[in-house]
């Protein structure tokens, strides 16, 4: 309740000044007038429902608005920028002298390989993995309703499939982490029956197995005890108020071959819905081991989500983010090349996640090998996050990343859902316009040659020249020297 003390103090001072002006001297109205106006403004802050920060921090919350224009926020696809750009251009997309008209309907990507009986048409931009627990119930619901309004998907994060994910009517990618929350047995292992029951829900359109995430690869997820409410504890089958540490690796497989077989089992249990996995790429050799297992078993996931090491998390180990794992560019190109090299790229869709916020970000990742993108940080901004960096403390001022009921109640679900939908729609529309300016209508038409980087003053090279790109099936036919050692060491019965 300390956040209401400034308003209470102003009200007390206003009352005292008003009493003094009546009993002692009318000159006290000089102080009473502004104090009364401030008290009324604070009361309005408490009652209004559009700005959650003001509801949680009346009067004081207004101090952030003068600095809001310089904060990093998701760019509107319909925005106009006067007087040109203000950044140094070290990387740019290549426009065409024969641009085309933008597509009236944004393109979608069919996710589902030959073993998938219920394929899903994925939007170019979706909500990345954020769990109920890391986010509040109202934030999760607002994101889901926004996804329903805009016909895009929401990744549940590894915290389980909560009622708040299911109430809004949006399409879901159910993420299963190393803690198996939502399909967890009494010993903390995988419960196949519970998984099958929940995967059959119509809201669940895809299933994603989380191997690692960009902000904390190799460490498992963390949910601070201050955010483990009774509801979260029931959902995850963990003690109330205790920090939840997901194991660093899965218990149900220990080799690349077992991973591929487990993914096939998940797809079968899910009734043929698209099933894939998410990872932050570390060793190229290890990912090639997974590809070798796909070739050996004749089985593929329907998608792979590549998370860049520049990605964020609400509570990750200090020193992990940005230091462990490949950045998104290198991770994407590695996964795309590996799948292409073993002749399986046409069966597997690639999603990209990690600091994606604008239409140009989407187009850049598509040119680097992705089929679609996911955003977390930008979606949090759209739902009301003000970047207070208190995600791990339970004191988020906007009610987005907290389980404090008083803070959560300030978040207006209907209003924030419309903001999420509008942000996604305008950002994808911006991406479609950029592609049209490049002479491209479909994401599959984008190539590494459409993206150029300045390597030194006076020298620019396209991504087609900067990176090595394998031909379909080249690893099987005879790998180039630069890939030969890793491919030979890629053991499907290990991880390289």
Structure description:
- Strand 6 (171-176), helix 6 (192-199) and strand 7 (204-210) form a beta-alpha-beta unit.
- With 496 residues, this protein is α/β, with parallel strands linked by helices.
- The chain is built from 17 helices and 15 strands.
- The model is unreliable at 66-72 (pLDDT under 50).
- The strands form four sheets. It has an eight-stranded parallel sheet. Strands 1-14-15 form a three-stranded antiparallel sheet. It has a two-stranded antiparallel ribbon with strand order 2-3.
- The termini are far apart.
- Residues 125-440 form the Glutamate synthase domain.
- Keywords: Signal.
- Pfam families: Glu_synthase (PF01645).
Describe the secondary structure blueprint for this structure.
Elements (H helix, E strand, L loop, with lengths): L4 H19 L5 H19 L4 H5 L34 E3 L15 E3 L8 E3 L2 E3 L9 H14 L2 E3 L7 H4 L4 E6 L15 H8 L4 E7 L11 E2 L6 H7 L7 E2 L10 H14 L5 E5 L4 H14 L5 E5 L20 H14 L7 E5 L5 H9 L4 E4 L1 H6 L22 H4 L4 H25 L13 E6 L2 E4 H4 L7 H4 L3 H9 L7
Parallel strand pairs: 4-13, 5-6, 6-7, 7-10, 10-11, 11-12, 12-13
Antiparallel strand pairs: 1-14, 2-3, 8-9, 14-15
């Amino acid at each position: 309740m300390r956040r209401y003390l400034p308003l209470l103090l102003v009200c007390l001072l206003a009352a005292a000044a008003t009493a003094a002006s009546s009993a002692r001297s009318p000159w006290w109205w000089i102080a009473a007038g502004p104090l009364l106006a401030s008290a009324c403004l604070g009361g309005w802050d408490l009652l209004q429902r559009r700005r959650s920060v003001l509801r949680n921090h009346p009067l004081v919350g207004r101090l952030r608005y003068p600095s809001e224009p310089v904060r990093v926020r998701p760019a509107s696809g319909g925005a106009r920028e006067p007087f040109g750009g203000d950044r140094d251009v070290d990387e740019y997309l290549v426009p065409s002298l024969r641009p085309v008209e933008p597509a009236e309907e944004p393109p979608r990507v069919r996710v589902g390989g030959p073993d998938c009986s219920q394929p899903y048409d994925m939007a170019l931009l979706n909500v990345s993995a954020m769990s109920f627990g890391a986010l509040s119930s109202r934030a999760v619901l607002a994101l889901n309703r926004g996804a329903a309004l805009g016909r895009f998907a929401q990744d549940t994060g590894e915290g389980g499939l909560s009622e708040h994910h299911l109430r809004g009517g949006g399409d879901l990618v159910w993420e299963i982490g190393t803690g198996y929350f939502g399909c967890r047995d009494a010993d903390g292992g995988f419960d196949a029956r519970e998984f099958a029951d929940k995967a059959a829900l119509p809201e669940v359109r895809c299933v994603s197995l989380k191997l690692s995430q960009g902000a904390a690869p190799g460490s498992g997820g963390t949910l601070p005890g201050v955010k483990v409410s009774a509801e979260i504890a029931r959902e995850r089958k963990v003690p109330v108020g205790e920090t939840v540490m997901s194991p660093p690796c899965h218990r149900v497989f220990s080799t690349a071959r077992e991973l591929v077989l487990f993914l096939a089992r998940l797809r079968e249990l899910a009734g043929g819905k698209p099933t894939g996995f998410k990872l932050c790429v570390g060793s190229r050799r290890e990912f090639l081991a997974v590809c070798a297992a796909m070739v050996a078993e004749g089985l593929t996931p329907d998608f792979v989500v590549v998370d860049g090491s520049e990605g964020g998390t609400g509570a990750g180990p200090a020193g992990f983010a940005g230091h462990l794992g490949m950045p998104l560019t290198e991770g994407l190109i590695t996964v795309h090349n590996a799948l292409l090299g073993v002749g399986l790229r046409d069966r597997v869709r690639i999603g990209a996640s990690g600091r994606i916020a604008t239409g140009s970000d989407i187009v850049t990742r598509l040119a680097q090998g992705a089929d679609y993108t996911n955003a977390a940080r930008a979606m949090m901004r759209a739902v009301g996050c003000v970047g207070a960096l208190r995600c791990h403390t339970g004191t988020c001022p906007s009610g987005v990343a907290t389980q404090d009921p008083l803070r959560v109640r300030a978040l207006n679900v209907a209003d924030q859902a419309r903001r999420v939908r509008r942000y996604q729609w305008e950002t994808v529309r911006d991406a479609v316009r950029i592609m049209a300016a490049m002479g491209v209508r479909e994401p599959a038409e984008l190539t590494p040659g459409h993206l150029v980087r300045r390597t030194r003053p006076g020298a620019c090279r396209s991504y087609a020249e900067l990176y090595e790109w394998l031909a379909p099936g080249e690893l099987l036919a005879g790998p180039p020297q630069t890939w030969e050692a890793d491919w030979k060491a890629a053991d499907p019965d290990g991880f390289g």
